[in-house]
Amino acid sequence: MATEDKNRATAAAILPLVGGAANVSSIAHCMTRLRLGLHDRTLVDDEALKAVPAVMGVVEDDTYQIVLGPGTVARVTPEFEQLVEEGRASASETPGPVHTAEELADKGAALKAQQKTKNSTPFKLFLRKIANIFVPLIPALIGCGIIAGLNGLLVNLGWLTSVTPALAAMASGFMALIAVFVGYNTAKEFGGTPILGGAVAAIIVFPGVANIDAFGQTLSPGQGGVLGALGAAVLAVYVEKWCRRWVPEALDVLVTPTLTVLISGLVTIFGLMYVAGEVSSAIGTFADWLLSTGGAGAGFLLGGFFLPLVMLGLHQALIPIHTTLIEQQGFTVLLPILAMAGAGQVGAAAAVYLRLPRNESIRKTIRSAMPAGLLGVGEPLIYGVSLPLGRPFITACVGGAFGGGFVGLFNQLGDSVGSTAIGPSGWALFPLLDGNHGLGSTIAIYAGGLLVGYVAGFVATYFFGFGKALLTEFNVSQEPAPSTVAATGPAAASGGTPAKEPAGV
C-alpha cells in the first residue's frame, strides 16, 4: 500500500506541473519515460518537474517525456492516467508553482531545445517512427533474453534438465513471432489498422511458406525477419489507405481488409521476403566482418561517437539493426560496445566531482545521479553535468571510445560479446550478455570494457576536461537552493534533461 501511495503521489505531483488534465492529449510510457502529448507546451513548469523527487529529468521531443526510471514509470503511468481521467471529469486542474532552476539545468534545457529544433527534419522524424515501432517490444526482449541466459546456464551446468525445455520455449516463443508484433506496431505508427499490419507480417513466419518458390528458390519461414515485416506492414498501410479512398463505403468492411491482405501478402511472398532476407543477411555479415577485421578500431569509433549520435537523433537507426542481429544470431554484438559510452560518462562525472570540491550543488547532482548512471541511465549526468560544462562531454566520449575499443579488440580476436536484448546498458546489461566462448569469458570482457571506459573517462576529464576559466567559474561554493535540497530523488538536484533511450534507446 505504501508503494501505491508513493506512485500516486508522484503522479499527483506531476499532473499540475504539465498544465493539468485538460492539457494532456495522450499518455504512453516506454522503459524509462512517461511520454505525454500536450495541447499547450507553455503551461508546463519544467523546473518544478525536475524538482519532483522521483523525476530524473525531462526531454522535449515529439512528445513531452518525463524520465522516471525503469520499473517506476510502469507503476506511475496507470496512476497518472487515472488522475487525468478524474481531472477531466471535474475540470478543476491548475498549474503548479514555479521553482528556481540551477544554472547547469538551465544550460542543459537550452541545449536540448536547440537540439530538438535541429532534429525536426523529415529523415529524423522518420527515424523516430522506426524507434516507436521497436521501443514497445523492449520489455519482452529483456524478459525473454534473461530467461534465455538462465536457460543456457542451466543447460551448461546440467541442472534442472526437466525444466530447461520449458524455459527454452518461454525464451524463444516471442522471438519466433516478433515479426507479427513489428507488423502490428508499424501499421499503428504509420496510420493504418494495426491488426492488418500484423496479419500481413504473420505470413513471413508461417511454416507453409516453405512450400512456395520465389526467385528460383524455396522460401524459408522467417525469411526477411523484422525488416520484411516492417516493409510488409508499411505496404499494407498504403494499400489500405488507397482502398479507403476508392472502395464504396457500403463495401468497405469486406473489400478493404481483403484487398489489403491479398495485395500486400502477394508482394511480401514474391518480393519482400527475398529482398529483406538478403538485406538481413548482409547486415549480419557486415557486423561480423566489421568487428572481426576492424575490431579495436571499429569499437573505438562506435563507442566514441555514440553519444553524439544520440544528440543528433541518429541512434534510432540502429534499433532495427540490433533486432535483426538478435533474430539472426541470438544476440547483438553492437550493443555492448555502444554501452561503453555510458561508462565513459560515469568516469567523467567522477572526475568532475573531484575537480569541483567546493561546488556542493554539482557534487550533489553527481551523487544523486551516479547510481542510475552505473545502471545505464546516463541522462541526468549528461544533461545535468557534462554537456552543459562542455569539455567534460567530449572527454566522456573519449572514455567511451577506449571502452569500445577494448571490447572490439576481443571481438577481433574471436571472442564475440553480445546482448540478447536491447534497452539496458551499464551494469544492467550483465544478465543479458551472451557470446561464443562461454558466459564467464563474455562477462569478463564486458566488465573489462566498463573498467577501461570508467578509467579513460575519468583520466581524460580530470586532466583535460577543465580549463582555468571553467575551474574559476564553477569551483566555488554553491549550496543548492532550499527548494532543490528538499527534492531528494535520484536526479532532483540535477535538473538533468535526458539525452537518450536505453541503447537502446
Number of helices: 20
Walk across the major sheet and give the strand order: 1-2-4-3
Extract low-pLDDT stretches: 92-101, 480-505
Question: How many domain modules?
Answer: 3
How does the helix and strand content classify structurally?
mainly alpha
Shape category: globular
Supply Rg: 24 Å
Strand content: 5-15%
Mean pLDDT over the residues = 84
Major sheet details: 4 strands, antiparallel
Helical content, roughly? 55-70%
- Tally of extended strands? 8
Task: Calculate the terminal CA-CA distance, rounded to whole Å.
Answer: 32 Å
Oligomer: single chain
- H/E order of the elements? HEEHEEHHHHHHHEEHHHHHHHHEEHHH
Membrane topology: Multi-pass membrane protein
InterPro entries: Glu_permease_IIB, PTrfase_EIIB_Cys, PTS_EIIC, PTS_EIIC_1, PTS_IIB_1, PTS_Sugar-Specific_Components
Keywords: Cell membrane, Kinase, Membrane, Phosphotransferase system, Sugar transport, Transferase, Transmembrane, Transmembrane helix, Transport
Subcellular location: Cell membrane
